[in-house]
Amino acid sequence: MSRNLSLVGRASEGPAVRLVEVDKWYGHFQVLHGVSLDVPRGSRVVICGPSGSGKSTLIRCVNRLEAHQRGLISVNGVELTEQTGRIDRIRGDVGMVFQHFNLFPHLTVLENCTLAQRWVRKRPRQEAEAIAMAFLERVKIPEKSGSYPGQLSGGQQQRVAIARALCMNPSIMLFDEPTSALDPEMVKEVLDTMVRLADDGMTMICVTHEMGFARQVASEVVFMDEGKIIERNAPDTLFSSPSHERTKRFLSNLLH
Ligand SMILES: Nc1ncnc2c1ncn2[C@@H]1O[C@H](COP(=O)(O)OP(=O)(O)OP(=O)(O)O)[C@@H](O)[C@H]1O
After folding, report:
1. Spatial distance between the Cα atoms of 172 and 15, rounded to a whole number of angstroms
2. Residue closest to 239 by CA, chosen among 216, 205, 199, 32
3. Which residues contact 243 (CB under 8 A, 6 or more apart)?
4. Cα angle at 87 between 83 and 110, to 5 degrees?
5. pTM for the full predicted model
6. What pLDDT was estimated at residue 84?
7. Cα separation of 228 and 27, whole Å?
8. Is the reported ipTM for this assembly greater than 0.90?
9. Domain 12-106+171-255 fold
10. Residue 4 has pLDDT above 60, yes or no
11. By C-alpha distance, which of 32, 75, 27 is closest to 55?
């Protein structure tokens, strides 16, 4: 595999992502309460929990789409602060895939996958296109490189969004409910792509309620409620014997 296509996290000391006692407010509303979490390099952490429990906010804080107000967040050993230079560096290290794909509708699939490479990574067009095609092949959709997002199914658009993120060579991938906007028949193709990424050793934090996926790839499942991490464990342990009553109720609705 060439250097540009490497998916394995870069070497540095400590966990890929660390949160220590993180608090976040939206105005007067406290959305995260003392959240602490270590995500080791190469691990796959699945975050689940009821609507409004702060799952999206937590991962949006990791790539600084949202700012936290108290506590510490570090990515690859670099603390997230107000200093823009550091934040740019972190954005480059962290890829994000959203529920609603967020592709540019007026650009082709190939252009969607080369835009940030050219403007942020300053790669020449030919190199950016070669990298984009390699990742479109990896997500099994190279034949759509000339299509516009509106001509693709939801599952295909989400696979393009994953390829687009990978083109930036992130060492960590964040997924925010990547399958929840998809028709059921398209969920599998996206989950299969994510399973392959996990098999390649990518560090992943996934907000999802796809418990089959969690069981298959997660190193740890984290259960959140009301802005707190209520409990966390290996998927089989958490699913078979949740220790908290709220986790029990949530999982029994989800798994049955
Ligand atoms: N930009 C914002 N301004 C104010 N409040 C917000 C904002 N974003 C989220 N919230 C509130 O913060 C809380 C947590 O939202 P968040 O989206 O992180 O939860 P979630 O667990 O991801 O929910 P869901 O599963 O429904 O996506 C909710 O009460 C939400 O209404």
Report:
1. 11
2. 216
3. 231
4. 150
5. 0.91
6. 54
7. 18
8. yes
9. Rossmann fold (3.40.50)
10. no
11. 32
**In this structure, which residue's CA is closest to atom 31 in ligand 1?**
52
The reply to whether ligand 1 has any atom less than 6 angstroms from the CB of 2 is: no
**Mean pLDDT, residues 103-116:** 97
Is 134 buried (19+), middle (13-18) or exposed (0-12) by CB count in 10 A? middle
Q: Chain centroid to CA 3: how far?
A: 22
What are the strands, taking DSSP E only, across 137-219?
172-176, 203-207
The predicted pLDDT at position 251 comes to 86
Q: Cβ(54) to ligand 1 under 6 A?
A: yes
* 9 vs 196: CA distance, rounded Å: 15
Query: What percent of the chain has pLDDT above 90?
Result: 75
Q: How far is the CA of 225 from the centre of ligand 1 (A)?
A: 12
Any idea which residue has 């602490």 for tokens? Answer: 36
